[in-house]
């Protein structure tokens, strides 16, 4: 009923759902899990999705309105999906709010760490943030973290080239992690 009364709300929700789906597709690139040692677990997938969400949200916040509003709606949508996923995994209604609070704190902490690293003059700051957040500071994964860091910088360059329209269409520039793995094998 509300969708008929407020068609713009439905349209906006559809746009953000499409953008969320595109962000999820980027985060689900197989190579993160098969070639770069990211654990193929709920936590590992959360970490890779969080990294991608941070990049999209960062760019949207830099764009004119409705970019910043879309950024917030994208985060809200992601958390609606997290809530649904927890429930589908069988987490009880009493426990879901506690788990959502933990996820929100993790997301916000990672977002802050990535933003600080991206603003830093230290070239290794992003690699350190990726190693800490995606790989739980496992030293043996430092080469993987360096590849993911190079990929993140590539994504940022691609995002800087686009304006609001592609985001509104749920389109993200295609930057594949596969193109950065060659550095690891060399």
Description:
- Helices cover 75% and strands 0% of the residues.
- The chain has ten helices and no strands.
- The protein has helices spanning 2-5, 7-27, 30-34, 42-62, 67-88, 96-119, 125-134, 142-160, 164-168, 178-185.
Summarize it.
Helices cover 75% and strands 0% of the residues. Residues 5-9 have low confidence and may be disordered.
Q: For the residues shown, what is the average pLDDT? A: 91
Shape: globular
Quaternary organisation: single chain
User: Helical element count?
Assistant: 10
Distance between the termini: 58 Å
Question: Regions with pLDDT < 50 over 5+ consecutive residues?
Answer: 5-9
Rg calc: 17 Å
Largest sheet: none
- Structural class assignment: mainly alpha
State the helicity in percent bands.
over 70%
Give the SSE string: HHHHHHHHHH
Number of strands: 0
Write a concise keyword list for the protein shown above:
186 residues; mainly alpha; 75% helix; 0% strand
Chart the SSEs and their pairings.
Layout (H helix, E strand, L loop, with lengths): L1 H4 L1 H21 L2 H5 L7 H21 L4 H22 L7 H24 L5 H10 L7 H19 L3 H5 L9 H8 L1
């Amino acid at each position: 009923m509300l969708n008929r009364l407020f068609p713009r709300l439905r349209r906006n929700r559809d746009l953000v759902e499409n953008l969320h789906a595109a962000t999820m597709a980027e985060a689900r690139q197989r190579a993160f899990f098969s070639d770069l040692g990211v654990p193929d677990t709920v936590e590992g997938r959360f970490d890779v999705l969080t990294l991608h969400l941070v990049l999209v949200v960062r760019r949207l916040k830099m764009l004119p309105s409705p970019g910043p509003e879309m950024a917030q709606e994208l985060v809200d949508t992601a958390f609606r999906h997290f809530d649904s996923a927890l429930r589908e995994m069988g987490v009880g209604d009493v426990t879901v709010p506690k788990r959502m609070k933990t996820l929100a704190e993790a997301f916000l902490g990672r977002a802050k760490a990535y933003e600080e690293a991206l603003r830093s003059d230290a070239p290794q700051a992003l690699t350190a943030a990726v190693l800490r957040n995606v790989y739980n500071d496992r030293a043996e994964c430092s080469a993987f973290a360096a590849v993911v860091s190079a990929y993140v910088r590539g994504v940022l360059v691609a995002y800087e080239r686009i304006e609001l329209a592609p985001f509104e269409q749920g389109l993200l520039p295609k930057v594949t992690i596969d193109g950065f793995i060659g550095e690891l094998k060399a």
